[in-house]
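#lab-general

N.A. 3:47 PM
ok so I finally got the sequence cleaned up, no stray characters, all 308 residues accounted for. can someone with queue access submit it? mine expired

B.Y. 3:52 PM
send it over

N.A. 3:53 PM
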Amino acid sequence: MNTKAILTLLTVALLFPAGVRASETIVWQGTKKFTNWSDVLNIEGSKFSGAKADDVLHLSITVSAGAQLQMSWGSSWTNFEGLGSLGISGDYELLLTTQDVPRLRQGIHIKGVNFTLTAVILKTNDGQYETQAEELFAWQDMLLSGATQGKTCSVNLKPYGGAGWYWPEPKDLSSYGSIVISLLQPAAETMTAQLLYGETSVKSQTIAKGATLCKLTLTSAHKKAYSVNIISEKAQTVAIGSVNLTDKQGNVVPTAVGGFLADAPRVLSVEYYNTAGVRLSRPQPGINIIKKNLEGGRTTVKTLNIKH
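B.Y. 4:20 PM
back already:
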């Protein structure tokens, strides 16, 4: 497979970790129906005085057919990336970036059609849970390309489809021993596990047909790792049990990674957009909007800036 195609195949925005405990601040609560685009809810910037990067802005929403959401900020009513307008199927969450925080403090405007808003909540990281940097392989952070998530941590891969993780900031993995990928069922077809690091370097390991374990050995060369993924040339369903880091003695390092959670929200579909709202087949260099439609009607939207 073309190396450049592999390098751009899988990227992921780090999402709010599943199963964590976070303090919540109710910014607004009530019942606001949005039936046409003239319906607007304005929230003053002082309500977001405690917001910081990596916090989550949560909107509790009940939708009807054709629901769309738009959220803008400041006196200019400039849209947040990806929100002008966005089709929604339930609750909406925005992971705040360093750029979003000063925008919130200028006040926000929520508008849209065919939904009812009952609460706006700011979920803050108050140190009660592990940081995102420690959740390298969380199930809910997996990015899919030519693939869909199934039940019980399975991934349905199309020909040359893949699944994996991307870290916007490179991770120094040189002090660890390996990345171990464990499958719940033997691989139906041969696959390739890859670690992308440095500028364009790729470390590959074949996962043979019938195998249930794959190990990517780490060395001093892996100081700037930014992606791990699994790619299959043939269509197959892969049941992934866990992906973990080990130390140099082969012991799993529980504080460095997050294992999969069987009850984590299943991603039904993933959509990619540029800042103009044009849908993309996969993330491209520049700012990407990643929309995930989760089981239970929940939707998350994150932004990812992929350097050229």
